[in-house]
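ok so for the tutorial part 2 we go from a plain amino acid sequence to predicted structure tokens. step 1 is just haveing the sequence, like this:
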Amino acid sequence: MVNFQEARVIIEGEYALAGTLTIPEGSGPFPAVLLVAGSGEVDRDGNSSKGKLFPNMYKDLAEFISNLGFITLRVDKRGVGESGGVFLETGMVDLVDDVISSISFLENHPQVEKILLLGHSEGCILITAANARRAVDGLIFLSGAAESIEDALTRQRQLVIEEILNMKGLKGKLARFLKLGQKIESQAQKLTDKIMNSNDAVIKYQFQRINGKWFREHFSYDLFDDLKKVTCPSLAITGSKDVQATPEKVYELPKLVNGPGEAHIIRNMDHLLKEVLVEIPVTQVVKAYKKNQNKPLHPELKKVLSEWLTRIY
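step 2 — the prediction. this is what the tokens look like for a chain of 313 residues:
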């Protein structure tokens, strides 16, 4: 195991972004891995104080990867934690710009020799877009490979509808009688129409403030066109118990990229990279995340990551 040192850093971009840099002991230079977070108000460690969810998966990933001899950088998203900006007004393009700023920071660091991007969930999309603008030396897709936000949301909605309609007893009968599945789809379409017909960064819908800019830019983005531009080595991993991303999509990634690709489904791993041994109803997923948040990273995930990183780099 390699020891490492940790330092707080500031990434200069449209807004100052606060991050944590880990550097292995030794003379270097070292390959560096930039961790790119998934959707929501999650900080550099993968935690959401607003959602009272503290799984620490990005901190655990960074420390694990640095112990393999890699520099890591993880950053508070724009408008989250110690970073500047307003989260609710931050679009997908803004997030990609911030990834590019972090790449520039690493390019200018004297101890960095290669740069890899590791995206989790939405981060898989962001690293694809960033690589198309600034080609890097490797890409790691966790819990979200080869799947757009729109496709992921559609699948999540379908899982919710299936669970509701398949409920037993009076609740199930009532759900089917009231045609709740059709109503959920109808509401989703109304929201999409409102978002796409607006130019506002933030829109109001059913007493909620929604980041319309973020949705519009994701819905307009051609993920699969940018995946064709990937020529560096890539690794895609999703858990079999993931209800937010489609596990089987990982096998599409090696077919879509133009560099060497590898794909794995980790048995009994959820969206937050933890080991779970029971089925997780999508309607109870937040409760399950909180129950499992103190678990370590899935051991098989660590094994696959370690083998690939040390073999390729």
